[in-house]
Structure formats: structure tokens, C-alpha cells
């Protein structure tokens, strides 16, 4: 269960960073 939470957090974190970078680049 802990491994699943870590993977989920990692995926969400990566997606969040990618979203911010995309917004910065498009601006």
C-alpha cells in the first residue's frame, strides 16, 4: 500500500511540474 501511495504521489508530482512548465512556456 505504501508503495502504491509513493507511486501515486510521484506521478501526481510529475504531472503537476509538467503542467506548470507547460503554462510557463505557453505564456
Briefly characterize the structure:
With 27 residues, the chain is mainly α.
Keywords:
single chain; 27 residues; mainly alpha; 1 helix
Describe this structure as you would to a colleague.
- The chain has 27 residues and is an all-alpha fold.
- Helices cover 93% and strands 0% of the residues.
- It has one helix and no strands.
Shape: rod-shaped
Low-confidence stretches are none
N-to-C terminal Cα separation, in Å? 39 Å
Number of helices: 1
What string, H for helix and E for strand, traces the elements in order? H
Number of strands: 0
Helix content class: over 70%
Largest sheet, if any? none
| Average pLDDT rating | 95
List the SSEs and their pairings:
Blueprint: H1 2-26
